[in-house]
């Protein structure tokens, strides 16, 4: 409403007098937001799937391990009477699944808004796609699937021998320790697990587990940043212990004490660290995708569902899945933590 001044006003003008002329200043640059540290895809075996081949399922094969039981004693000039060895390949199978998400913005918002919702959505979709793919890999290693039940073996921190006995421990007695980590890798070596090319294994741990390990190691812990050859530091690596590269990630599987093992519960007291060798799990690599990435679309053309073009649709989708390749090449190390958050 217009204000009419009918008589003289005296005194210094203040911002109160000018309130109708002031506005909130909007900063164009968005503030930083929380982003997960995701590490698992970099260790994936890339399962090649050529396009145009009529296939949406990946199956990978391996020969069985050597066994001296297949060796026979030969007698000169006498044909063996043993049945010949029959080689049957082992295999794992996983069908790809389409995943995605979408959002809509009205045409009026698109034409008049100060900030750019479309650009923010594209960035958000990329982060959500990466988080979802990392979660598929994580859960395949921990729990397998109905289609392919292969999953990592299990070990438990402290004196625990199973999920129930770990649930009964305190955070201090069930915490992540260097001994547990070394035991896990020892078990992998006993199982003839495959080391990475530099002779190491990898442990992907949560920030709480990282804290417990560093506190326990004290001055003996050497951060990756102190290495003489920084070019050999892997993405997310925080240090090395007894030939194990320790890598920090924020998408760990948290579970409830006394609950169901492998069922994610945000804030749960039990945390699953993944300790593994090379080619322990696989994800698809469609021909022409390097690296694999979700497809992002902006749909602006009118159609039967949007005849007047009154909204813009932002879409992402991917054709993806993950599979654990062997039980002997990885360990799920279940622990609690001494971290209290205070």
The total strand number stands at 15
User: What kind of sheet is the major sheet?
Assistant: 7 strands, mixed
Span from first to last CA?
Answer: 54 Å
**Unreliable stretches:** none
Number of helices: 5
Helix-strand layout with pairing:
Elements: E1 45-49, E2 57-62, E3 90-95, E4 97-106, H1 107-112, H2 117-143, E5 153-156, H3 163-167, H4 178-190, E6 201-205, H5 207-217, E7 237-241, E8 244-248, E9 253-255, E10 270-276, E11 281-286, E12 295-299, E13 311-320, E14 323-324, E15 330-335
Parallel strand pairs: 1-11, 5-15, 6-8
Antiparallel strand pairs: 2-3, 4-13, 6-10, 7-8, 9-10, 10-15, 11-14, 12-13
Describe the structure.
- It is extended and about 125 Å long.
- The two termini are 54 Å apart.
- A hairpin with a 2-residue loop joins strand 7 (237-241) and strand 8.
- The chain contains five helices and 15 strands.
- 26% of the residues are buried.
- The protein has one domain: Major capsid protein gp5 fold (2-Layer Sandwich).
- The strands form four sheets. Strands 5, 6, 7, 8, 9, 10 and 15 form a seven-stranded mixed beta sheet that branches. A three-stranded mixed beta sheet has the order 1-11-14, covered by helices on one side. It has a three-stranded antiparallel beta sheet with strand order 4-13-12.
- It has helices at residues 107-112, 117-143, 163-167, 178-190, 207-217; strands spanning 45-49, 57-62, 90-95, 97-106, 153-156, 201-205, 237-241, 244-248, 253-255, 270-276, 281-286, 295-299, 311-320, 323-324, 330-335.
- It is of the alpha+beta class and 342 residues long.
């Amino acid at each position: 409403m217009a204000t009419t001044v009918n008589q003289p006003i005296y005194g210094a003008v203040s911002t109160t007098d000018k309130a109708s002329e002031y506005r909130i200043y909007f900063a164009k640059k968005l503030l930083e937001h929380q982003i997960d540290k995701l590490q698992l895809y970099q260790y994936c075996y890339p399962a090649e799937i050529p396009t145009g081949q009529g296939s949406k399922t990946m199956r990978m094969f391996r020969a069985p391990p050597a066994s001296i039981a297949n060796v026979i004693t030969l007698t000169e000039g006498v044909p063996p009477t043993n049945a010949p060895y029959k080689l049957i390949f082992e295999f794992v199978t996983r069908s790809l699944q389409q995943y995605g998400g979408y959002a809509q913005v009205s045409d009026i918002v698109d034409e008049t808004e100060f900030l750019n919702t479309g650009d923010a959505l594209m960035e958000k979709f990329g982060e959500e796609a990466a988080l979802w793919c990392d979660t598929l890999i994580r859960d395949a290693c921990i729990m397998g699937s109905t289609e392919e039940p292969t999953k990592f073996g299990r070990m438990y921190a402290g004196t625990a021998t199973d999920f129930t006995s770990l649930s009964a421990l305190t955070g201090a007695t069930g915490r992540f320790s260097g001994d547990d980590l070394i035991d896990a890798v020892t078990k992998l070596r006993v199982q003839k697990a495959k080391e990475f090319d530099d002779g190491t294994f990898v442990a992907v741990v949560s920030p709480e587990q990282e804290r417990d390990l560093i506190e326990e190691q004290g001055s003996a812990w050497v951060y990756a940043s102190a290495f003489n050859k920084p070019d050999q530091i892997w993405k997310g690596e925080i240090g090395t212990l007894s030939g194990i590269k320790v890598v920090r990630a924020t998408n760990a599987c948290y579970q409830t004490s006394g609950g169901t093992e492998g069922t994610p519960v945000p804030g749960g007291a039990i945390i699953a660290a993944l300790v593994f060798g090379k080619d322990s799990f696989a994800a698809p690599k469609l021909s022409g995708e390097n690296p694999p990435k979700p497809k992002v679309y902006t749909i602006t053309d009118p159609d039967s569902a949007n005849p007047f073009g009154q909204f813009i649709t932002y879409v992402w989708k991917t054709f993806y899945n993950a599979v654990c390749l062997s039980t002997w090449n990885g360990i799920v190390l279940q622990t609690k933590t001494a971290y209290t958050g205070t």
